[in-house]
Amino acid sequence: MASQQLLPLWRYHGVRLLRSTSTWVMLALIVAMAGTQGVMSSHLPEIMSSLAGPEMTELLAATMPEPSWHHAYAGWMKNLAQIITLGLLTINALGYAQLSSNGDIPFILTKNLRRSYYLATGAISTWCAIFAYAAIGATVTWAGTALVFSDAPYLPVLVASLVWGLEMTLISAVQLLATTLKPGIGAPVLAGVGLYLLIAIGGTFDRIAAYSPLGLSRLSTEISSQDAVGAWLIPVGSSLGLVLVVFLWGICRFNRCELA
User: Fold this and answer.
1) Which pLDDT score is estimated for 1?
2) What is the mean pLDDT of the segment spanning 54-81?
């Protein structure tokens, strides 16, 4: 019975995401960046040579390794960690600000249900979109890279992208909580950027990266390049636990918020 009552909520959030221009812009950006990684990596020496002088060209020829799928996957993970993350961070902040200030909509859609179900289903829909982006990007990256480097494996880039999805979900959960603490777009943007920088900096320290969620970015890079992967259970497990705690905290806060 409860699942049937939740159907309008899932339908509302699904349609909201599909009708959002930002969804399709982000998807197009991901496909474009993912699909060109193989070609860009294979022609990187020529590109660098055309931009450098004769002396630098000789130095690059002597020091640069042969192009391989490792470079393509590394480029994709860098795009995920920088351009895609910052883009989604802004989009999610806007989305949560709208979800928490939609007037009577939460009350209409959650008739005979807790009001928190509205924000909970909205957040989970956003997280599903994040993992869909990760899977689509990984698949397109592998397909484009395999055309140039036939030995390119699929599993490393897929798993690494899903780990990034977990990192982005953690950032999104913190943004959700920030929205319920201080309505508007400013709080989720600042919270998201702050956690993003904390993960980027914290991942450079071995002990912190091995025993906390701050190691997710480093872990995804290691997996994509098939380097020796260190401890993964604690960063992943602690991240899942932290997502759950922050999510429940945000939902409890939302129940006490006065909607605009």
Assistant:
1) 44
2) 76
Q: Mean of the pLDDT values across residues 175-179?
A: 94
Which ranges of 80-183 does DSSP label H, i.e. alpha helix?
A: 85-99, 105-109, 116-146, 155-181
Helix (H, G, I), strand (E, B) or coil at 154: coil
Residue 143's φ and ψ, nearest 5 degrees, are -65, -45
CB 144 within 8 A of CB 35: yes
> How far is the C-alpha of 203 from the C-alpha of 216, rounded, in Å?
7
Answer for the pair 70, 225: CB distance below 8 angstroms, yes or no: yes
Asked if 180 contacts 253 with a C-beta cutoff of 8 angstroms, the reply is yes
pLDDT at 5: 73
What is the rounded average pLDDT for all residues in the chain? 85
Contact 144, 39 (CB under 8 A): yes
Whole-angstrom CA distances from 94 to 31, 56, 149 are: 23, 45, 39
> Which are the contacts of 196, defined by CB distance < 8 A and separation ≥ 6?
85, 86, 89, 171
Residue with tokens 């709080």: 187
